[in-house]
Design goal:
There is one protein chain. The chain is of the alpha+beta class and 214 residues long. Helices cover 14% and strands 30% of the residues. It is built from 1 helix and 12 strands; from the N terminus they run αββββββββββββ. The protein has one helix at residues 2-30; strands spanning 49-53, 66-71, 74-82, 93-97, 111-115, 127-129, 141-143, 160-163, 169-173, 186-193, 196-202, 209-213. The strands form 4 sheets. Strands 2-3-11-10-9-8 form a 6-stranded antiparallel sheet, with no helix packed on it. Residues 1-28 have low confidence and may be disordered. Residues 1-21 form the signal peptide. This is Kunitz trypsin inhibitor 5-like.
Length: 214
């Protein structure tokens, strides 16, 4: 009787350890990989970074970092543009994941993108898509978004960072913060407007980017 009890206890312990080990491996496997800057370091939620165009031998005029500018006759800087000069890094940004784990920014994860900039013209410095309900038309990246509070009311404020090649990345609008919302996923690219490079949603040519610590 004692031997049977001992065997049962040992079997239970082995089973428990096995389950715990397998769970750990499963959790580790399911965690998306961290986004890394040009120095190879993980992006952190408490730091600011420049979003810069990745080096591309096919693009002779790749421009600089990202900034804010007015649209048309409206001089209020509420739209997101790319600097035309490679010498300008633009405005630093912060990345705020929907579920921050240990302060690390990861690929394929819903996050808010926020300029390290005060409120401009009554708009928050958080990125937002202006036409996310009908993205088959022109949809541009502006500010005025909301940090956190995931759900249908903040659907326009969620972006993702995805791998694009070996060391480069792309920005994607494909929020998963609302399970019942209809979303058309698109990449963030560049559209030329009056000689300026404005960020918009595209299915053709995503902006290939890297991140540099500010």
């Amino acid at each position: 009787m004692m031997k049977a009890s001992l065997l049962f206890i040992l079997s239970f312990l082995v089973f428990s350890i096995s389950v715990s080990t397998n769970s750990s491996f499963t959790s580790a496997a399911e965690a998306p990989e961290p986004v890394r800057d040009v120095a190879g370091k993980m992006l952190r939620t408490d730091r600011h970074y420049y979003i810069l165009p990745a080096a591309n031998v096919f693009d002779k005029f790749r421009g600089g970092g990202l900034t804010l500018s007015g649209i048309g006759k409206n001089t209020c800087p509420a739209a997101v543009f790319q600097e035309t000069s490679e010498q300008k890094n633009g405005i630093p940004l912060a990345f705020l994941p929907v579920n921050p784990k240990k302060g690390v920014v990861r690929v394929s994860t819903d996050l808010n993108i926020k300029f390290a900039y005060p409120e401009t013209c009554g708009q928050s410095p958080v990125w937002s898509i202006d036409n996310y309900v009908y993205p088959s038309g022109d949809s541009f990246v502006n500010i005025g978004g909301v940090v956190g509070n995931p759900g249908p009311k903040t659907l326009s404020s969620w972006f993702k960072i995805e791998k694009f090649g070996y060391q480069d990345y792309k920005l994607v609008y494909c929020p998963a913060v609302c399970s019942y919302c209809r979303v058309i996923c698109k990449d963030v690219g560049i559209e030329y407007q009056n000689g300026k490079r404005r960020l918009h949603l595209t299915t053709d040519y995503p902006l290939r980017v890297v991140f540099k610590k500010a």
